[in-house]
Amino acid sequence: MGMTIAEKILARNSGRGHVEPGDIVRATIDKAMANDITAPLTVDAIKDIDLKEVWNPEKIVIVFDHQAPPTTVKAAEDQDTLRKFASQQEIQNIYGDFEGVCHQIMLEKPHVLPGQLVVGADSHTCTYGALGCFAAGIGSTDMAAVFSEGKLWFRVPESVKIQVKNRLRKHVTSKDLILKIAGDIGADGAIYRSIEFVGTGIGLISTSSRMTLCNMGVEMGAKTAIVPPDEKTREYISKKTDEDYVETHPDPDAEYAEELQYSALKIDPMVACPHSVDNVKTMDELEDVKIQQAFLGSCTNGRLEDLAKAADILKGEQIDKGVKMLVAPASREVFLRAMEEGIIGKLVESGAIIEPPGCTTCWGGHIGILAPGETCISSSNRNFRGRMGSPEAEIYLASPTTVAASALTGEITNPRDL
Predict the structure, then answer these.
(1) Which residues are annotated as a binding site for [4Fe-4S] cluster?
(2) How many domains does the chain have?
């Protein structure tokens, strides 16, 4: 019996010829990442076990992105602790304020490559699967074990194949596609499974759009989400590094716990309504929803193509006076390119507020806190009660084009109507 991508990577990194779903393996980690919120807990655990040296400083990445620059004394102290820890352990891959979201940085540099086993102390680590690797979020104390030994226990997950054919229509994005899938599967429909996105429809979308798909795998409970590497993957990596890697593809006779099929032509602009990511509706199913805030950014949709799509929707028009539109480029590199291409200028001219690269508004711990009774349309990945501020506020999730269209009109708007 053949193996899926997840099974092959876990088999190779655990030194086994073959694994099956349910097997328990101890696998070697290729790269490990922690951010300014999770890494302090990891460092505390390392101190508790009196670890003198990490297993491999070159394979560890630390990123300040959740509260960067710090907005509290505690956040500043945590970052100071992490800088000292990195210096002591000779960890060179530490990224400070204004560098961007950890997941974007991991993919930009890139710190991950196809076929690798990567862990991050953040649930959206699954984003990296867009490059054809097994990437999974883990806890901070688990990360302490990785920093210590470079290995971690895994249960081999079942795999789900999601096949997408045809091309997405105008003003429909991969965010709409993944919201549709999340609505169908449910928030607990893929718990501890590996999702493989395949088909002609996946081949037609950009690497950035694949990152959006994989990013939200965890919103269905998945352990990891993966797009098999192809020519677009190779082109993306070749522009960033000449490091060798081994592509991993599923066997023709690999077994899947479930197989789903979608036609991109049938996907409409979608919205996830409060307070669950799988509470998904089409625009036609929504009643009039007034908004006070629009957020464009996050590890889901803060990349260059996302900002460009929003700027194209705004087209020099003015954002509704009752709406504050916040834009957070996913990284400094994205910010610079967006300035060079005039995208930032277009957004500012329309009335958008540009935030420093990072997580910012997405998690409610930095900029753009919602007041009771306020409603936000967001390009991020979670709309839990209290996620962006007051538990009496409401968050709707949508694509960058829908966010921009809604900012113009002051209510949730189908971008096709513009």
Answers:
(1) 299, 359, 362
(2) 2
